[in-house]
Specification:
Layout (H helix, E strand, L loop, with lengths): L6 H32 L5 E2 L5 E6 L2 E5 L6 E10 L4 E4 H4 L3 E4 L5 H7 L3 E2 L2 E6 L21 E11 L11 H8 L5
Antiparallel strand pairs: 1-2, 2-8, 3-7, 4-5, 4-6, 4-9, 8-9
Length: 179
């Protein structure tokens, strides 16, 4: 009735399974899922591997361009099995943030539409939460993510103020010495 394997051996096996086998298996499943999505009509792929479908392009003159631009959006995030893991629609409140405060795929996708636009995104693990996952384990390692995003508004990053050169500094730099 005793286990032939020691407790340390069992623990090492489980850690290997959790840290290596599960993430690798999830990555294979994510890639299969994304390849199936890529075959759907209207779905496009960026150079980074982000898949997207623009539902409504929005105002082309009001787009986020810089990663520091602020955007206000509504969104719903789902796992490949359809489980919703986050939704501003469910909370009935939009979110505002700078694009560089979210996952890379989110920022890249939002830049493809203008204010009032709607986009569907399918984000590969390397543009999402990667090998670590998030949301207390709801989004596991190497998960592909699906988002529907409505871009409500864009606040561009302000242009930096030009440096003011004091008159004394300017006059000193203009002084030339002649031999």
């Amino acid at each position: 009735g005793k286990c032939a394997l020691g407790q340390r051996t069992v623990r090492n096996y489980l850690q290997t399974f959790i840290n290596e086998v599960n993430p690798q298996k999830a990555l294979v499943n994510a890639n299969e899922y994304l390849e199936n999505i890529a075959k759907q009509e209207g779905v496009k792929r960026t150079a980074s591997g982000l898949l997207y479908e623009i539902v409504i392009p929005g105002n082309r003159n009001k787009r986020a361009v810089l990663d520091t631009d602020l955007v206000r959006i509504n969104y719903e995030g789902k796992l490949r099995n359809g489980t919703v893991f986050d939704s501003t629609f469910d909370r009935n409140e939009s979110e505002q943030f700078a694009l560089n405060q979210r996952i890379k795929g989110f920022a890249e996708g939002i830049k493809l539409i203008g204010e009032g636009g709607v986009i569907n995104l399918w984000i590969p693990p390397h543009l999402g939460y990667g090998r670590h996952g998030i949301y207390g384990g709801i989004v596991g390692p190497n998960q592909a993510l699906a988002y529907t995003i409505t871009l409500i508004s864009v606040t561009p990053t302000p242009e930096p103020e030009p440096e003011v050169v004091e008159e004394a500094e300017a006059s000193q730099s203009e002084v030339t010495t002649e031999p």
